[in-house]
Amino acid sequence: MPTRNAPALLAFALCMITLAVNLQAPLYITYADLSGRGAAATAVAFSGYVLGVLPVLLALGGLADRVGRRPLIIAALALSMIATLLMLLAPSLQTLGIARLFLGLGTGLASATATAYMSELMAASDSSRAANWVTASTSLGFGLGAALTSLFLLNGPSLTPGSFHLQLLLAAVAVVLVWRLPDPRPAQRGAMLRLPYYPAGSLAYGFAILLAWACVGLVIALLPGILRQHGLSAWSGFSTFCVINCGLLFQPMARRMASAQAALLGLVILPCSYALLAWGADSGQLVAVLLGAVAASSACYGFIYLGGLAAVNQLAGTEKTRASAGFFLLAYLGFSLPVIFTGLLSDYLGSRVALLAFGAVLLGGCLITAAALYPRRRAVPLAN
């Protein structure tokens, strides 16, 4: 039977998995300089992540049911440690692409089963509470990694900052803790190939998170290079922290709203916050960058992430694992592909044109998605 602290231990493990994902973010410019490459190459290396995520979310939807939930979390932790070791042993832009492939595989494994596993450990029928725990723990990890590396870099430039060693230590602790967790649902002899599932009414939430995480991906991968033009490179890790972790502050508010209402509010905030953030980056206004990042975080990791994941799991019925895979598939496509195209535009036409083009597409996408979600705004709130 699940123990009382089992959900907290799983949340710690999920945080360690996602902490590794953006651990190297403040060093992206350094890796690019070492390789003699520009924004487009950096974006391609950054997007190696999606090559790892796609096989898991597209083709291995039945893996969790076949082998159990716990082995996938342990595998994800191991992959995060391998990625960090690679960056310690051979720091370069090429290694970054390989490391992010491993990180994508690990995060895909964790994302596909985390909400279902959390629900089982809580032994509760309310999937919203499990989704809240998953979104909080993963959001914390995504932003904390970049902030930790920035803090260690304040002591001086380094290709092997202490944050890398810290992640290895904490992830090893998480492996030991998860190893002792129960796996309430027994392994089943189901089909390994189970495609992502989009229950009726869920696609709009998927497109909302795609737009939200596209904005986050741009901040993580391309903003450091733009900030360097104004001598603000040291703040790139903190901008990543702000655009991810500050969303946690808004999750209590999101829980009191209907899922569609929360996602709609996020879609209103997202283009406005991006406009402030992009103007600040282009003009070298650090306060505007950080305020825009905080506002964007409220949309990306507060209202849209929490509202969307909870709604999808409520709509999914008994297919929570496949529905979560479908939701995160769109999220990670947004996290990677738009960043590549924006990086190419930045190299060929300049950062200002790239920021404007991304903003125009973001605004159009938000308007279309909001129109699809608007009729559902009076659904049951996330928190019962």
Automatic annotation (TrEMBL):
Residues 1-384 form the Major facilitator superfamily (MFS) profile domain. The keyword Iron does not apply. It is found in: Membrane. It comes from the Bacteria. GO terms for molecular function: transmembrane transporter activity. It is a multi-pass membrane protein. The chain crosses the membrane at residues 39-60, 72-91, 97-118, 130-152, 164-182, 203-226, 232-250, 262-281, 287-311, 323-341, 353-374. The keyword Transmembrane helix applies. SUPFAM superfamilies: MFS general substrate transporter. One of its GO terms (cellular component) is plasma membrane. Keywords: Membrane, Transmembrane, Transmembrane helix. This is MFS transporter. It comes from Pseudomonas reidholzensis.
